[in-house]
Structure formats: structure tokens, C-alpha cells
Amino acid sequence: MNVEYTARKYKITPDVRSEVETGLNKIRKILGDRFETKVILAVEKRRHKAEITIDPPHGPIVGIAQTADMLSAINEALDHLQKQALKHKTKWLSKKRKAVKKFDGQSQEDMEAALGLAEDATFSVLVHKFPSVARTTEVHLVHARDSVALRPMTLEEAIKEAHFRDKDVFVFRDPKGKLMILHRTRDGKMELIEAP
Prior knowledge:
The chain is an alpha+beta fold. The protein folds into 2 domains: 93 residues, 2-Layer Sandwich (Double Stranded RNA Binding Domain); 55 residues, SHC Adaptor Protein, CATH 3.30.505. Helices cover 32% and strands 24% of the residues. The chain contains 4 helices and 7 strands; from the N terminus they run E-H-E-E-E-H-H-H-E-E-E. The strands form 2 sheets. A 4-stranded mixed beta sheet has the order 1-2-3-4. The protein has a 3-stranded antiparallel beta sheet with strand order 5-6-7, covered by helices on one side. Helix 1 links the parallel strand 1 and strand 2. Helix 1 packs parallel to helix 2.
């Protein structure tokens, strides 16, 4: 692992180098040894800035921190890098997929023979029965005054108002006085329900 240091209005001390290298060793345990590191340390108007960039195989990760002390800025940047490295590793591990075997046209008898099932094999099946009427002891009511329009409006106005208020159910009256209900389905479409 190569570490390239750049200092702007700051002198890099051995303490700073050892702090950076101990933090990078933690990240090396997460990502392995295959990355380059660039460390930029700068001082601007009593602010100490630390920018640490590592370049693992699937894209760069940057940790930036700014404090009143350089060592604390380095530690914050390394902590930020460590969190991002864990996220980076889990992201790439979750993308790995196992090979799925395709159906090769075997018949059911061949599959039963391969599984070791005989014709007289029996299986116990548990069927769960739900009660015909759900028993509830408490009713939880929420009054939604934002879901009801106080003045009559056209369908277009009601749709805009429901989107603006971010409501899944919106009740309004049309200009003729008829009660209408707008309902947003799970796929994002709006349904219009006309009350009798």
C-alpha cells in the first residue's frame, strides 16, 4: 500500500504519519491491500483540514474532516473512511450472486428419484386456519383534517391538491356538490371514487 502525502502550510510530523498509518491499517483489514492512498493536510485560518482518498478496485472513497487540531481532523477523516469502506465492502459482497441452475427438462419422476422419494412417501402438511372475524380490542382513530377539502373543486384541482399535501386519500366535493374521493394506489396511480 502506497501512501502519498501532500501538505499545504503544514509540516508533516512522525506522529501524524503514524496516526494515518494506524487508521489505514484498520481500513486495510476491511478492504485488503489493493488500494492507493493520498493524504492532503492543510491549514487555513486556524482550521486544520484532512482529506484522505483511497482508491480500491471499484471506485474511490474520500474522507474529509476539518477541526481546530490536525490529529483530531485526521481521526475524523479516518472514521469517515472506515464507515464508507464497510458500506463499500457490503455493497460489493451483496452484489455477488450464486449461479442458478436452469430447468433441464427432467420429469417429476426423475426428480423424485433424485431426491430419494418413494411412491409411498407421505408428508404431513399443517394448514393454518384464520378466524372468520378478526378480534380487535382497541380501535385507533386518527383525524386527518388535511385529507378533506373545505371548498368545492374540480378534479384537476383535487389531484394537484392531493399531490401537494402528499395524501393517499383525499376527499372533496365537485362544483355540482357531489362527494368525490381520490385514492392513490400502491403503484402511484390515482383512483376516483364517486360517493352516492
